[in-house]
Design a protein that fits this description.
Chains A, B: GO terms for molecular function: DNA binding; DNA-binding transcription factor activity. Chains A, B: It holds the Pfam family FCD. Chains A, B: This is Transcriptional regulator, GntR family. Chains A, B: InterPro entries: GntR_C, TF_FadR/GntR_C, Tscrpt_reg_HTH_GntR, WH-like_DNA-bd_sf, WH_DNA-bd_sf. The structure is a homodimer. Chain A has a two-stranded antiparallel sheet with strand order 1-2. The first copy, chain A, folds into 2 domains: 68 residues, Arc Repressor Mutant, subunit A (Orthogonal Bundle); 151 residues, Up-down Bundle (Four Helix Bundle (Hemerythrin (Met), subunit A)), CATH 1.20.120. In chain A, a hairpin with a 7-residue loop joins strand 1 and strand 2. Chain A is 69% helix and 3% strand. Chain A is mainly α. Chains A and B meet through helix 1, helix 3, helix 4, helix 5 and helix 8 of A and helix 1, helix 3, helix 4, helix 5 and helix 8 of B.
């Protein structure tokens, strides 16, 4: 007979259970943007929860940008589900990645997957405005920059490539994963004593990616971006 | 001369600015799991914000699973950064996708990208336990199920494929995108008057994907999963 397994009791705050109930309605599609939630008192009764728990849950959902509350009695009053702006997703994802315990290889793998797709899509679209923006960033990075300034523009370049892909959701996911690595990538630059040589190499790699995008060569753009990412991650993931 | 461009003033609540400041410390790596935040009063002074704003920010971070607060004065008291469990990311992402206004084509594109990668990785790994789980789900779906029950297992199957890919982060992203579509996918099933025929087709497609994974044929697994996803999304995205 197997020995009994004991684990700590999971304490879940009531407001979290209220959030879960509201989430179920959102995910099933029973509730959507523009819909009004029942008044606090009624919602508490429906869920068998205290008004305090309902109030806390609504405050959290409001902070997440999921609902909006208006005081008063007019037609606009009450708690309404709002369409979340895309960048709110990115912020929340970034926060989570910053404290989550995913192995470094998982983050690199996700980066490669998402950024390959973004580079390929950017090459297929060849949007002149997006390419002009990438060129601008390349030029800015040609200046005699220190690691911090270069790293900031590096993040902007990768996020701009993600943004040129024409799929806003994939762009947000890519940007969030890349941005969550900002600190680790800067540390990788700091660890290299011969900064000018590393900087030259990164510039060449970036230029190669942008040229492939400009030429509309999707597989080449994806391969070059993957090589660029992996070469740097070998430094920082060890 | 260009005409002046007017846009609405963006009102950002103070607690959001507090969250941003804490996020900066997390992303730069200056703060990490296990670290303690300064006491509320001190943090308010450091950030030039009200204690109310700090309290609200901490409540939101707590709801997101980023910090944990303990009352009292012991060594365990105060607000501590906790390593976020991977599934917390999935929940927050799901909530956001449920109310976000990404075009349907973006969601389909992200699904295809992530699920292709997951299926290919699952085929490369050929993990016997993961494959046994997929087989179990296929068998359960062979029963005479209504749309709701079938749809539940359908979600589980896709999430299980994502989970067999060996990259936990990609798995969580895939599961979140797939789960956020749960309601829309069920509606697609409800819209089909000849349910037994649609169910048979979905079963065949699922079986084909799992067989390719079992055979270790990564490109075939990815292609079959993409065809399966696109065929269904044509129904629901129109």
């Amino acid at each position: 007979m197997a020995a009994p397994k004991w684990g700590p009791v999971e304490r879940v705050a009531t407001y979290e259970l209220v959030i879960e109930k509201i989430e179920e309605q959102l995910v099933s599609g029973a509730l959507g943007p523009g819909d009004r939630l029942p008044p606090e008192r009624e919602l508490a009764a429906l869920l068998g929860a205290s008004r305090q728990a309902v109030r806390e849950a609504l405050r959290v959902l409001q902070a997440l940008g999921i609902v909006r509350s208006r005081q008063g009695t007019g037609s606009d009053a009450g708690t309404v589900i709002v369409p979340a702006p895309a960048h709110a997703l990115s912020r929340v994802l970034r926060l989570h990645l910053a404290v989550s315990s995913f192995p470094a290889a998982d983050l690199t793998g996700a980066r490669v997957l998402l950024e390959r797709a973004s580079a390929a899509a950017a090459a297929e679209r060849r949007d002149p405005e997006a390419i002009a923006r990438l060129r601008e960033l390349l030029t800015a990075m040609d200046a005699d920059l220190g690691r911090e300034e270069f790293s900031e523009l590096d993040t902007k370049l990768h996020v701009a490539i993600a943004g040129s892909a024409g799929n806003q959701l994939v762009g947000e996911l890519t940007a969030a994963v890349r941005e969550s690595l900002r600190g680790a990538l800067l540390d990788g630059m700091r660890a290299e004593p011969d900064w000018p040589t590393l900087r030259d190499q990164l510039r060449r790699e970036h230029r190669g990616v942008v040229e492939a995008i400009e030429a509309g060569d999707a597989p080449l753009a994806a391969d070059r971006l993957e090589r660029h990412i992996r070469a740097f991650h070998v430094r920082i993931d060890g």
